[in-house]
Protein: TM7S3/TM198-like domain-containing protein
Organism: Gulo gulo
Amino acid sequence: GRGEARCGVAGFLPEQETSRWGAGVRLALDASPRGPAGVRWGRLASDGTRRQRPGIARVRRQSPARAAMGLLRLLVLAVLASEPGVAGGAETVGNSSEGLLEFSIGKFRYFMLNRPSPEDAILRHISSNASFLIFQIHSQYQNTTISFTKTLLRNTSGTGTDKGLVFILRPEQSMCTWHLETLDAEPVQNMAIPLSYSERDPVPGGCNLEFDLDIDPNIYLEYNFFETTIKFAPANLGYARGTNPLPCDIGTGRDSRWRLLYDVYQYFLPENDLSQEGLLKHLQRMAEVPQVKASAIKVVTLTANDKPSVSFSSLRGQGVIYNVIVRDPLLNTSAAYVPVHTYACHFEAKEGNCSSLGRVSTKVFFTLCALLGLFVCFFGHRFWKTELFFIGFIFMGFFFYIPITRLTLLTYDVRLILTAVAGSIGGILLVAAWWRFGILLFCMLCVGLELGFLISSVTFFALLGNLKIFQDDGVFWVTFSCIAVIIPVVFMGCLRILNILTCGFVGSYSVVLAFDSYLYTSLSYITLNILKRALHEDFHRAFTNVPFQTNDFIILAVWGMLAVSGVTLQMRRERGQPFFPAHPYKLWKRERERRVTNVLDPSYHIPPLRERLYCRLTQIKELFRKEQPAGERTPLLL
């Protein structure tokens, strides 16, 4: 009858097919409470056959017209079942009563929230096996409020872009409701899903003592330029409906919440993707435990004795989703917290928002550095002084930027200008030191340390950065310095090769940094992570994972091509040439002595530079001298 059809067509279709087809099938069956003529009511078995329901006899044969109408109704059901938006099961738009948003367990739903018209969400037909529910709602950057009641209280509601509530079910309870609203002036696109868990599953946030909610399944995220930190409340063991939860702080044995483990996962959105649709689509992969394990990267596992807080390197403009899965190793069960996302930037900021990350000053600075680096990559060894200026610029600029950032409150643009000035002075000083003293080993030490710095940065970026031993600053800086110093020591017997390798790899890497000013690439964090660690005292605890996607592969190929091409070209061109140019000061002094002793040299008769400048100034003064009147210029004698 009609009541049987409304209960999920339990007498006509398998339960999984009913939930997959959605509201369209239920409405069609509501419209046809009785089976069509000539068709037997029955239950479909897993193999597709129909089993006769007990107590229902075969219906006698009806007229051909009524039989045709029955076949037409079955055809309508088949069309509804094959609709693309419903068959997938990942996104549904369930039945909506007047003023209510109806949800189904494990089904995502998209909807709009407006400030003048809040909504109420309802979930029906909750399984008796469920012990508690987690209802979570997500938006890109506009805040949404979720509450148990229309009266907003701190311990029963939450506001943010990724929020959720735990609903502890009472015995025999099969329906629950939530209140949803937003205070944003613009309409907010949301996505929400309710998830059910049994009494054996741990309760995320069940032992919350820090945040407002009594049971808080949310992950709280804070970020700055250097690091992104997530915090969450400890979980508790699961319990059946109608029973009291286990105490959180009584006992630390295997029968308490101290046996629980917390797996922290990280998921990267596609690079340069700031779209709302892309975010909500990828959030679906981070809501349930199986999808999180299959899609995300497990960063670390925390025990109940560890502080429930993890730090990551901030990736400005790169979307990242974080989630925590709490596991009960004794019962082999698990539950997921509410996932949280960040771009490490503000969408509505007037300056430096997510859509325009590269400042004009940054683009100008790194573009000029890339042009100079590209020249050094292919011609650095032949134009030795230009290369020394480039090396001195990098050294002085890097070591000047660190103290001026840590000790002053100057704006970024001012610091960048001062860094450029200091770097130019450093480059000029290194060139002047070579010109006057001609100490090749000192200059090559600077060159080798530059290459060693880059190789050491790549080593920590790709291999060693997330090892726990290197969270100690002393161990990190000693290891980093040893790798950087060993490079010039290894190449001490072949200085020309060392110099050409430095020109090729360091010069081409400046092009990578210029790319990052216009288009995001993870390769810029090779050196940026080292700079962050030198600037921020708490960065040692941050995990430095970065995405490596299509853009990064392309830019890595460009970097390698430029480096190999530059090294090969300079090796071939310098074959048979002197290893390094002669001492400039000695050449100048020798030429000066030659000019003094050789009177037949035409340059001998050229006045010194001081006399030539004085003569030129005298000529310029004559142009501005007032013309004297003609006639007698001396006093008349009496």
In short: The chain is about 40% helix and 15% strand. Residues 412-437 form the longest helix (26 residues). The first strand starts at residue 42 and ends at 44. Residues 350 and 556 are 33 Å apart (CA to CA).
